[in-house]
């Protein structure tokens, strides 16, 4: 049975479009995660550590090796407080 060569052009176009879309989506995901692969299945502890890293470094994927936290870390608490009058 002969191969319908006319069908290969749309097949190649669809394959290229899906491949380009997937590649661009992967690049966009990595760009928003500082070049690292995305995290999956985060539990409460992991989310708390991500929030701590964001407050320490300004990036949710950044980590700090400094043993002492910066001065702004003391006042950037995630707990909401009320003013006492």
Explain how this protein is built:
Residues 74-85 have a biased composition (Polar residues). Belongs to the complex I NDUFA1 subunit family. This is NADH dehydrogenase [ubiquinone] 1 alpha subcomplex subunit 1. This protein is mainly alpha-helical and 85 residues long. The protein has a domain at 8-60. The protein contains two helices and no strands. The radius of gyration is 23 Å and the shape is rod-shaped. The protein starts with 7 loop residues before the first helix and ends in a 28-residue tail after the last helix. The model has no long low-confidence stretch (mean pLDDT 84).
Rg estimate, integer Å: 23 Å
Q: Taking all residues together, what is the mean pLDDT?
A: 84
* Helical coverage, percent range: 40-55%
Overall SS class: mainly alpha
Number of strands: 0
Secondary-structure element sequence?
HH
Backbone shape: rod-shaped
Low-confidence stretches: none
Task: Report strand %.
Answer: under 5%
Describe the structure concisely.
It is built from two helices and no strands. It is mainly alpha-helical.
What is the element layout, followed by pairings?
Layout: H1 8-32, H2 44-57
Observed structural traits:
rod-shaped, transmembrane, mitochondrion inner membrane, mitochondrion, 2 helices, electron transport, 85 residues, mainly alpha, respiratory chain
